[in-house]
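Hi R.,

Here's the chain you asked about this morning:
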Amino acid sequence: METAAKQKRNRLIALAFASVLLVLTYGPLAQWFIGADRFLYDQFSASKPVESLENALIVSIDPSRMTGEQVVETYGRVLGELQSSRVKRIVLSNPPALAEGEPLPDWVSFLNADIPVYVPTRHRLAEVTNNTGVVSLHPDEDGVLRKSDMWYFIDSKMVPALPLAIAFDNDGGASAPRLSGAEDAIYLSRYAEVPRVKATELIQRGISYMRITDATVFVDAEPAIVGSAGLLPSGQYVTNSEVVATVLAAVEQNAAILSPAWSKAMQWLAPILAAIVAVLFMPDRNRRDIAVMAVVTSAGMMLLEVLMLYVLNIRLDLGRPLLIFIGVSALALWLVGDPRKVTRDAFKRGSDFLAAGRLEPAFAEFRRCHPSESLATVMYKLSLAFEQQAKPERAEAVLDWMKRTHSTIKRESAEKRAGRAPDRLGRYVIEKRLGRGAMGAVYLAKDPRINRPVALKVIPIEKEFEDEELKEARIRFFREAESAGRLTHPNIITVYDAGEDKGQAYIAMEFVPGTPLKKFTDPNRLLAPKRALELAAATAEGLDYAHSQGVIHRDIKPANLMYNPKDGSLKISDFGVARLTDNNRTKTGIVLGTPMYMSPEQLAAEDLTGQSDLFSLGVTLYELLIGEVPFKASNIALLMSKITSEDPPPVSNRRSGIPPSVDALLTKALSKNPENRFSSGAEMAIALRNCARVS
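And here is the predicted structure, written out as tokens:
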């Protein structure tokens, strides 16, 4: 409950934090997040391979040694040379400024010659030609040129950018479907160099030597680097002509990096989705899982952005969702805290509670600890403490929790806690573990003297008891072994020997191959009613014999009845927790057992007789017949109330093949008053066999 409350609190804190981040990403800190996204884009796009404009050339005029008039004159001479050649098209991306009112130079006639000459829309040269387009470079706030718009709204009409206008003329509008939106833009990455030639060299040597047939020729007065107009994400300084050449190459080669409408919608949805995922899955994880999720998800976002950029040429803005996810992850790490400190503090508090006898708070603290050998040992002691307080259901809860959480230690350390024997105990050679109970483990061993397999029940007696308690435990252990060793019956597992070695007490008993009847209490695996009645009769006969020897089992349940389907035999196990009935004692007290199978007098800690075992056998038979115990409750107090005051519903109408006589038998066996039950196991066995005949 405490863990669930903490997870809920952490999730609410993470939700509030993510909400604040979302507000900040689109509010006061928007520029910071935009900067982060730009940084990611720059890193990825700078290494993206690009192709240069095919068959292109830049004729560069050096204005550093010319006057303005000379530059204008040089433009005319270069255009004259180019018009006399067979170039494909000429682009003046940034022609010399011409003052308003002054006459245009004579060479403007070249603009309407056979070879098309493209000029910027806002330049005076646009007055004499229709081959125009917008050239407008708008770097971001950090001075880096990342985007080139493809359309501009001028004088109430949409005007294409110069590269797009050139491409439209060249391919007959094939580029229009991809770049027809008013908000379309191409994202720049790096510049693939276009060859340059000096204007003076072109004029002096003529055009013929250059072999530029069908070439795209740019003419400008902006030498490389010196005349740069912008800085690309790749760190390259580029001129207007180089930018136009880059965009034109991207359009004509269908390699333009675009940002479609859905990707722009993702700029709003992705941060919200990242926040939702982080809030739902982060706060209830441990630090290692949070770190792994943060790294994997962040790497996944960056990989997605790279793949979209490199493979699909799509620009995705994942800076915001990435930073939001990392932010919530960092918060979750802080909320979880240092697991070693949490474990250390919780372990200390739990140990203090256990020493003070406050078992429930101790259990709550120990559940906060990270699984370890030390925790496993102290949790086993806690289960024993619950048993000593007559709370076996809480002891089982402790052991169940250990099974679920101690996956890496469950074999070695759990076996040690349960009293794992060494390779040899006394004269017995250990082969393998068969099972584990509340007080110890059971192993398959071999008696080398006579080469006989035995089941060896082992209890770490010195680890669990100290001083006077240890002395009393030894006496009780061997007394129980002695009482069980007196029993010799076909339906009771035989005890051969008992001893103590290396701080471990052990009982050597008959090894019986078979399956506990617990396996057949599953509603989908129930035995035939006749078989269940016959096995219950065999159990009653074994109990009748044990009672005649003064031994009460005290823990009859399906798990303690071993059934061998091959020969149909049944044997009662675990008489090691039974006690001798002692006429000199007035009260025996409650011993280990399972509450739902206990008789009313056993729950009330009254003197027990053999009728208590017969009540438990009635509960066992009820469960074997319909796969459900007669008394069920959500807590031990309500369970005890039902056992001592309520009658279970009949079973004959719950399953076909069960005669009404079984209802009468169970009513008698489950009577609240021991005097109203069967007088002996033999009497109950006769009644069971009579029911089996008619079923």
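One quick note: The chain is about 45% helix and 15% strand.

Cheers,
M.
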